[in-house]
Design goal:
The chain is mainly alpha-helical. The protein has five helices and no strands.
């Protein structure tokens, strides 16, 4: 049996009109930057990237780490963050407290490293 192709999808006339208007506006505002086909194709790739952001693989940040990052961004110190983020922190034995604190600090550092990656554009993670 011969494989069948998916039927072509049609764009709404409103979307076609909008994209055409945007292209006209880009040509009008930046005529020299889109004068040749190579530059116009770069603009098209940029537009495509803006329309369909990349999906970043990997495990998403846990709520606990995200909360700790937010508290650090607010200027809170680690001794204030541990009890706010680690469940039952005050009642944990000292060695478990230290272990959980180290795990949290490491996870926050790794999260910040991922957020600072030059190709990463999704700050929500």
């Amino acid at each position: 049996m011969k494989p069948t192709k998916a039927p072509p999808t049609r764009l709404s006339p409103e979307l076609v009109r909008l994209v055409t208007q945007v292209a006209r506006a880009v040509r009008k505002r930046h005529p020299f930057e889109v004068a040749d086909r190579a530059k116009a194709e770069k603009v098209a790739r940029l537009f495509k990237a803006a329309l369909c952001p990349r999906h970043w693989s990997g495990r998403p940040t846990t709520k606990r780490v995200a909360e700790a990052v937010a508290l650090r961004d607010q200027g809170k110190q680690w001794p204030q963050i541990y009890p706010a983020v680690i469940a039952d922190y005050r009642n944990l034995p000292a060695h478990e407290r230290r272990y959980e604190a180290e795990k949290l600090r490491h996870a926050v550092g790794a999260s910040r490293t991922r957020r600072a990656h030059p190709y990463r554009r999704n700050p929500s993670r």
